[in-house]
Amino acid sequence: MTKIIILYFQPKEEVININNYWAKSNPKETIQEHTDSLLKNLCLFKSIYPNIPVNYELLKLACIYHDLGKMNIRFQAKIQASIDGKKSYKDKLEIPHGILSLSFINYKYLEDKGFTEDEIRILFHAVAYHHDRDLDFEEEDLGREISLLKKECVGFKYDKADELIQLPDEIEAKFYMLNDRIYEKNDDDNNNQTFYDYIKIKGLLNRLDYAASAGINVEVANDFLIQGLEKLKEKENWGEWNKLQQYMINNRDNNVVVIAQTGMGKTEAGLLWIGNNKGFFTLPLKTAINEIYNRITKKIVPDREKVGLLHSETIFKYHELQESIEELDIDEYYLKTRQLSLPITVCTLDQLFDIVFKYRGFEAKLATLSYSKIVIDEVQMYSPDLLAYLIVGLHYIIKLGGKFAILTATLPGIVKYYLKGEGIEFQEPQSPFIKDELIRHSVKVIPSQINAEFILQHFNNNKVLVICNTVKKAREIFEDLNNNKKLFDKDVTIKLLHSRFTRKDRREKEEEIVEFGSKNSMETGIWVATQVVEASLDIDFDILITELSDLNGLFQRMGRCYRHRTYDKQGYNCFIFDGGERTCSGVGSVIDEDIFELSKEAINDIDGIMKESEKMQLVEKVYSAEKLMGTKYYQEVQKTINYIKTITEFEKSKDDINFRNIDNITILPKCVYLNNKAEIDELINIYKDEKTTKDDKRKCWIDIQDYLVNVPGYEVKKRKPEIIELSKYRRILVYDGFHYDSILGLVRTEAEEKGDNQI
């Protein structure tokens, strides 16, 4: 294709320069300056990813045309007022500049240059909707504004243009009509190529536009990951990569589903599969994500600003980093992370797979995933709704060119069933990567309720991990342990970890358990926890005592015991309480009843040494499509998949999405507020002060978050909070009826417990 077009208008004596028109007011930037920034980032992007399947010529045209509609007098008057420091206003007659930009596109010239009708239509729609706003005007309004724009733009010069054109009286209906959209067709994927191509052009235009506006590079090249991994191997004296890791290297160009036991270097295996490409490493729990992020940035990629951390508390983690790394520009680092500009990102599933809702603006994220490699770790931990989002999301990602690797210690058979059902192709090894010769667990199933006496009996100057299914049960066991330890001739250190601590206290406890459970630690004691310790934490305890949750969760828990060692002793190191004639805590609420009963049946005959192959066989059996067919779990997955497929593109905004089916709310317990009133009030006053800078407001908000706690919605459903308004968009909900301390966490008062029999 020849030299890119565009834009000289019908000549007149005075040539109007595009650089005389404003694109932005803060900082001041002309249309030409802004467009040049997009084109500069486009060159950078193309140099990093020259071979991805995107029409770069079409994307360049989209960059050149996208903001030309800002030359209209209404937009220029509005932005000039902002530059002059006058109050911003909304001109009711103003039409979105993306729509007006369409009048500049010389489609006849494009046709002559060989662009197809579909390509030109994609260009029109990408430009029109690069800011996806409601269109509340009529055709005659559009015609009026185009006429005004014609008069305004009778001749101007832009050095990126080479074609003489004249604004039309109306936009060519063949390529764009008011409220027309390029939608996905439901009948056949083969008929959706135009839709997929549109996603890439529009999404990448958005990425380039955001980067130019923010003054950052749209992408950072990954030219370091393989080298970093090789250096780590050499430093740790690993010799050659193990069979799992070599398999991932050999299958870098494939979608893969791989089962590998814990302790085999799955993190390194996933990163080796990503190689020197753009990659995302997803995990279910923020605790595990933080741990993986720390491992990568400390051992593999010391240049921290090339690795992003993305979950709901990213800004808090980055703030902590800034306290120890003075040269870290946290604002730019956070911005690049949010814009998906970094080559490697460790994140939660919801940060990527909300694309299934096809909300306004989803194209930027999906276009990014179209040239990315995504590792999905611990897939067995996802609830039915999240599994459905994963399956449908992978369908879109691979259709656009992205790749995935499911890398997990246990794999529910139903996952492969749904992948195949959606036509998602993948490779898998002939057999799981396990070391049956490495005996790690000897298991005893106890048909009763978990209890403190049993736990204390198994403390013998060792490390004991107790895992309960609910916060309430964990707290009960912890208190029973402390009340009864005096009966034993033992000095026992006992700690508690769950989700209902203030952010500050939970952070400290997570760091403490990782240090306590490290293979080099000589400490002894008992940790009582919930599922927050189940996945990806590199901790190694001597004894595991746990409630039965479900089989997947159980084996994840067992992975925290004898993680790096062979169990060569008499007796047992894993004790499973299955509830006996009753169920365990959380069944029916956080644990599916059907899967619990199937899991209970599956472990009924286990007594003694349990090989890794046995675990995987049991998981395959319990979680097969045949076993789960008709269960609530299966019905929920199918219902969610069916629902997602009914969602029309662009009908939702991002604010409409509730990705996680969890009714959690962040509160400031009144008791915490009163105990720290001076500090909290000072932060509130600084935040509300008009003189406080945006950066200082952000720091204040981060510090306030240290005092907040996440609780299920039902805990506060019947109570009205005191509301502290910080700004139009930010407030603090203060709830009474709780006790709090750094040992137990958040506990309802006795009066509250008596007043509500449902909890």
- Tell me which CATH architecture of the largest domain applies here: Orthogonal Bundle
Uncertain runs are 1-16, 755-759
Largest sheet, spatial ordering of strands: 15-16-14-17-18-13-19
| The CATH topology of the largest domain | Hypothetical protein af1432
Total strands: the figure is 25
Count of distinct structural domains: 4
Structure class: alpha/beta
CA radius of gyration is: 29 Å
Estimate the helix proportion, in percent.
Answer: 40-55%
Describe the structure.
By secondary structure, this protein is of the alpha/beta class. The chain has four domains: 208 residues, Hypothetical protein af1432 (Orthogonal Bundle), CATH 1.10.3210; 197 residues, Rossmann fold (3-Layer(aba) Sandwich), CATH 3.40.50; 170 residues, 3-Layer(aba) Sandwich (Rossmann fold), CATH 3.40.50; 92 residues, no CATH class. It contains 30 helices and 25 strands. The strands form seven sheets. A seven-stranded mixed beta sheet has the order 15-16-14-17-18-13-19, sandwiched between helices. Strands 7-12-11-8-10-9 form a six-stranded parallel beta sheet, with helices on both faces. A four-stranded mixed beta sheet has the order 21-20-23-22. Helix 22 links the parallel strand 17 and strand 18. Helix 2 crosses helix 8. The longest helix is centred in the N-terminal third of the chain and has 22 residues. It is globular and about 95 Å long. 44% of the residues are buried. The N terminus and C terminus are likely disordered.
